[in-house]
Design goal:
By secondary structure, the chain is mostly helical. The chain has helices at 2-9, 11-57, 69-77, 87-126, 141-154, 156-201. Keywords: ATP-binding, Nucleotide-binding.
């Protein structure tokens, strides 16, 4: 009762008690946070020690980074620095990225296969004799590859170009000769017709047996 009377008589004492209690709670919270951080630190130290022991037990030839280590590092650490705390989230994100890349790669492979098979069908249509015994699927590609090697070894494109060049030259030459021949024969025919007309004009015919003015 006397304590309550004293607190009512001196309210600053009650306020001081409240502040002391608040400070005690702050200290308690800080100690709890410190303990939690200390536990995290201890776990990290333990994990590092475990990893160090595993590394020491790993043969030297296996300690070399894999060929795709750079790509994996970029995949795991392209957003922020990779740590033990964010390793799991980065792993899930990397897994999603890899899944997306795989889907795109599968799509590209399917499109490439369709394009190749369309090219094989076009070759068969344009060269039915050369591709008479060949199919039109990806499994038939080795047959077409052998034909391609043979064409390249025989240098057929160069001979094809030479053939068409000679064909064009011969065609132009033959057309010129044909034109000259037509002109010559035209003149010969005209000359023969003049001889016939002269002979007919000197012959006597009964009236009405040939058109007037012939």
């Amino acid at each position: 009762v006397q304590l309550e009377d004293a607190q009512r008589a001196h309210p600053e004492v009650r306020e001081l008690d409240t502040q002391i209690e608040a400070q005690r709670q702050t200290v308690s919270d800080a100690q709890g946070a410190r303990g939690s951080e200390s536990d995290k630190y201890d776990r990290s130290v333990e994990q590092m020690a475990t990893l160090s022991r595993e590394l020491e037990a790993t043969p030297a030839e296996l300690q070399v980074p894999p060929p795709d280590a750079g790509e994996l590092q970029e995949l795991f650490g392209k957003v922020d620095r990779l740590t033990l705390d964010n390793l799991e989230s980065r792993r899930e994100r990397a897994r999603g990225d890899l899944k997306e890349q795989r889907g795109q790669a599968d799509k590209d492979r399917s499109n490439a296969r369709k394009d190749l098979e369309e090219a094989l069908r076009t070759f068969r249509r344009n060269h039915p004799l050369a591709a008479a015994d060949m199919g039109e699927t990806l499994d038939d590609w080795p047959d077409y590859a052998r034909v391609l090697v043979r064409i390249e070894q025989d240098d057929l494109p160069r001979f094809e170009e030479r053939f068409f060049r000679l064909l064009n030259e011969q065609s132009d030459r033959h057309i010129a000769k044909l034109r000259q021949r037509l002109v010559t024969e035209k003149e010969e025919i005209r000359g023969r017709m003049n001889i016939v007309n002269d002979a007919l004009s000197q012959s006597q015919f009964n009236p009405g047996t040939y058109p007037p003015g012939f």
